[in-house]
Amino acid sequence: MSLTNRQLFFFVFLFTIPFVTSMLPKMMADSFGTGAWIYLTAASLFYSVFAGIIAYLGFSNRGKTLFEYSRPLVGKFLTYCFSLIYFVNFFIYTSTTARSMAEIIHAEVMVNTPRWVVMAVTLAAAGYAVSKGLTNLGRIFEIMGILILTVSIFTRFLTIAQGDVLNLLPVMDIAEPKKYVSMVPSSLFLFSGFELMTIIPFTKRNGTKVMGTAVFTVLFIGFFYIFATETTYMILGVDDCSNYNYPLFTAVRRIDVNALQFLKRGDLIFIITWITEAFCNLSIILFATVEYARKMLAKQGSNFVLAAIGILAFAAGLLPSSAAMAESLALHTSFYLSGFTMITIPLIFFITQKVKNHEKNISEQP
Fold first, then answer.
1. Which of 158, 179, 337, 349 has the largest CB neighbor count within 10 A?
2. How many domains are contained in the chain?
3. Which element (helix H / strand E) includes 351?
């Protein structure tokens, strides 16, 4: 059970982008305006360091996941405590993602279909995908990821062709240069995804390049965010972005390519692509949740755990009274829990491993 470096890139990429990019232009317009690109650049540089640390830990303990290599580092009790934090974090993401996906599909495509039906079907389909195992997921999502990335970039270039570059001015607010950097820690939600590497066992074929892959993936996600935000600004303008919950969809609907008749309803192609992204995202998050549950319960390969997590996630997804509440829950979860899963826990393991390696080198000296 393993992934190639390319599959790892698409796993983290598809874990991170679907729901963030749909809301990101509004979030950036409200908080940073046309200077959002500075904030996103600083944030991607910051989090790429911690992605590299997690990849380093996985590479240093090849063939093991965090649950397995943490025992000799911090002991059994802390291993279960840390694993429980990861499990809760991924579980909340699973339920809120399923709810948000159902809300958007209901609003944009299947207006007459009850939200709970959409959520049940998507969770069942994601569960079936997860049951095929990590290697098969990696192969499928590599192909789907290439197609999704191609369509997404092509759509963004269409917005550039029909957008107004003047909507990107001023490039930054020179009166608040510190604001862009000081608020980087608040961007946990935007880059939550690379902690997925804690449940992926690396092998020799990943090599030392896996650390470069992890860093590159986060930097690329930052670039993708900037690209999506700036191109949306070009169509709608910064002020107008604040008026829509999902401005990315609104911007795509305003694209009209007369030379290409099959793209007269280009928004349909974009929405289908987004639904595919969201399905990949839900499948990956569900996989991570199930893997931590299986590790802690010592039930490797048990489909009972998968079914139980799916049912509980469905029930939890119905609890929020609205999509806005589900999104708010996800944001608060990322702020409190993702800080541990993305930064604090990996740093503890990294420092502990360095200290133990140093002590081992000293004891081996004659």
1. 349
2. 1
3. helix 345-364
